[in-house]
Specification:
Radius of gyration of chain B: 21 Å
Shape of chain A: globular
Radius of gyration of chain A: 18 Å
Structural class of chain A: alpha+beta
CATH architecture of chain A: Roll
Number of strands of chain B: 6
Distance between the termini of chain B: 35 Å
Number of helices of chain B: 10
CATH superfamily of chain A: Tgt2/MlaC
Signal peptide (chain A): 1-30
Strand content of chain A: 15-25%
CATH topology of chain A: Nuclear Transport Factor 2, Chain: A
Keywords (chain A): Signal
Number of helices of chain A: 8
Order of helices and strands of chain A: HHHHHHEEEEEHH
Protein name (chain A): Phospholipid transport system substrate-binding protein
Oligomer: heterodimer
InterPro entries (chain A): MlaC/ttg2D, TAT_signal, Tgt2/MlaC_sf
Pfam families (chain A): MlaC (PF05494)
Chain lengths: 202, 314
């Protein structure tokens, strides 16, 4: 059952597998369950550090954007959010869209940082999936019942990076794809217009 | 046009009919189930009559949920919305209602009433709903959950000052979270088309039936002495007000911050609801078929247990 905490034995096995993988010289095994789980802890620590810094909101959003670029596979997320239109887009359009998307996501979710003050993320399980690794966590925010957040991590970009997140089953990437899709509809499929809109959205 | 299949869990038989006949009112007291035109051929869902009789579900009217084009099982963002135009009109109405009344009222409520009191009122409403949830757990064939729900109700109603506090959570009695929509899911009914209900918000045909049925299944409403009629309903409205106020940033970003709030709300509702139902199923499933690999390491997921789309594959 997914929400069960690591049992001692499976945790030891995972750890052992992680250590074995570390000592193997094969790059294909670079990312393991344990590695994926520790990546989640790492990013949570980084975000909490920004929140605790007490900077202005706009400065914090800049910091969140840096974290997003460092830990997230932004190009693949932007490409997915753009949907089928990504195939017909020129490489300059894709680059501009990726930049605009990166700023939009950082503003949209960065603005809500107050909700995460004093929040804790507990990694519960990690497993291999087709696209990479799935890390299931329980998030506890102040004054709320704990809820499930699942992170998806992959090393297909060459580095271990996040590429999606599910909050109580809600697929963030799919939600953004729907949002960008609506924006494209409104602009009759004009990607450049959507890129301009994104610069002020979020 | 009409297909019939047997659900794996039980022997319910579900007929599919053209979309325009999807929502129907049935008189279950009649020996033969007919639609409101008296035409038995248009019938699409045969309710398990014995089950209904046994549990004395209010048998006068049952809205039968129509099945969608594909089964419930996939956890993705599949959307079946044949009534999109109507739904969008209702969405515009609901959004206007929220903007004019509900949002300001909710913001005022959480601004004036201190947070611990808002939490207490929420707990009070939750506590009142527990006997109804216990009934749903029983209908789902989950006596253990029904018992803990009853226990939670007893503890919070007594030690917890009529439900205003939540000592049951301190005693680690699990929270209850079910409704008649879940019961219908357990019984094998399909999700049906997406519906946005006036005043209520996003739903599906199956969940809409659940909402209506749950109005009549809380034993508290049948208690010989009760302080106020429909207390549960009023408490629920206050709870929704509190939630609207507490999560106002999230709700605002969906309703007023997105380029198509209808599509966003629909996607978020469907995914979240399917997630709740799947988690529910997973417990039962894993209880029956324990994973032989689970003790020796995490197995590589097969297609059946890997619901994720791979954006790198595009």
């Amino acid at each position: 059952m997914p929400s069960k905490l690591f049992s001692r034995r499976s945790f030891a096995t995972t750890l052992a597998a992680g250590l074995t993988a570390l000592s193997l010289p094969v790059p294909a095994f670079a990312l393991t369950e344990a590695g994926a789980a520790s990546l989640v802890n790492e990013v949570v620590t980084e975000i909490n550090r920004v929140i605790a810094s007490g900077k202005s909101e706009s400065a914090m959003i800049k910091d969140f954007e840096r974290i997003f670029v460092r830990y997230g596979d932004v190009p693949i997320m932007a490409r997915y959010a753009l949907g089928p239109d990504a195939r017909s887009a020129s490489s300059a359009q894709l680059r501009n869209f990726t930049n605009a998307f990166q700023g939009y996501i950082s503003r949209k979710y960065g603005k809500r940082f107050r909700e995460f003050i004093g929040g804790t993320v507990t990694v519960q399980a990690a497993r291999k999936i087709k696209a990479g690794y799935e890390v299931r966590t329980k998030v506890k925010l102040q004054g709320q019942a704990p809820f499930d957040v699942t992170f998806l991590v992959s090393d297909k970009s060459g580095k271990d990076k996040f590429f999606n997140m599910f909050i109580e089953g809600v697929n963030l990437l799919l939600t953004e794809r729907t949002e960008i899709g609506s924006m494209l509809d409104r602009r009759r499929g004009d990607i450049d217009a959507v890129i301009r809109d994104l610069a002020s959205a979020g | 046009m009409r297909r019939c299949f047997k659900s794996e869990e039980d022997s319910l038989c579900v007929f599919y009919v053209p979309r325009q006949f999807c929502i129907r009112v049935y008189d279950l007291s009649a020996s033969t189930v007919k639609d409101r035109f008296g035409n038995p051929e248009m019938m699409m869902t045969l309710f398990p009559q014995k089950l209904l009789n046994r549990f004395r579900v209010p048998a006068f009217v049952v809205l039968a949920a129509c099945a969608g084009p594909s089964p419930d099982a996939d956890g993705g963002g599949r959307i079946y919305d044949p009534y999109e135009n109507t739904n969008r009109a209702i969405h515009t109405f609901n959004r206007g209602l929220d903007k004019a009344f509900f949002r300001p009222a909710a913001k005022g409520y959480v601004a004036v009433i201190p947070r611990p009191m808002v939490n207490s009122f929420n707990m009070f409403a939750e506590n009142l709903s527990l006997p109804g949830q216990m009934v749903d757990y029983l209908l789902q064939g989950k006596p253990k959950e029904a018992c803990t729900t009853l226990f939670r109700f007893v503890v919070n109603s007594t030690v917890g000052f009529a439900g205003l506090a939540d000592p049951a959570s301190d005693f680690e009695i699990p929270r209850a979270d079910t409704d008649f929509g879940v019961t219908l899911h357990v019984w094998g009914f399909a999700e049906g088309p997406y519906l946005e209900l006036p005043f209520y918000g996003p739903s599906t045909a199956r969940d809409a039936v659940g909402v209506v049925v749950n109005l009549f299944t809380n034993p508290i409403d049948f208690a010989p002495t009760r302080p106020i009629n429909n207390l549960g309903l009023y408490a629920e409205i206050v709870r929704r007000l509190g939630d609207r106020g507490l999560y106002s940033d999230t709700v605002d970003s969906i309703l007023y911050g997105s380029s198509d709030s209808y599509a966003q709300l629909r996607l978020i509702y469907l995914q979240n609801r399917r997630f709740e139902l799947a988690t529910d199923n997973e417990d039962a499933y894993l209880g029956l078929y324990s994973d032989p690999y689970s003790d020796t390491g995490t197995p590589v997921a097969t297609d059946a247990t890997d619901p994720y789309e791979d954006p790198y594959a595009e």
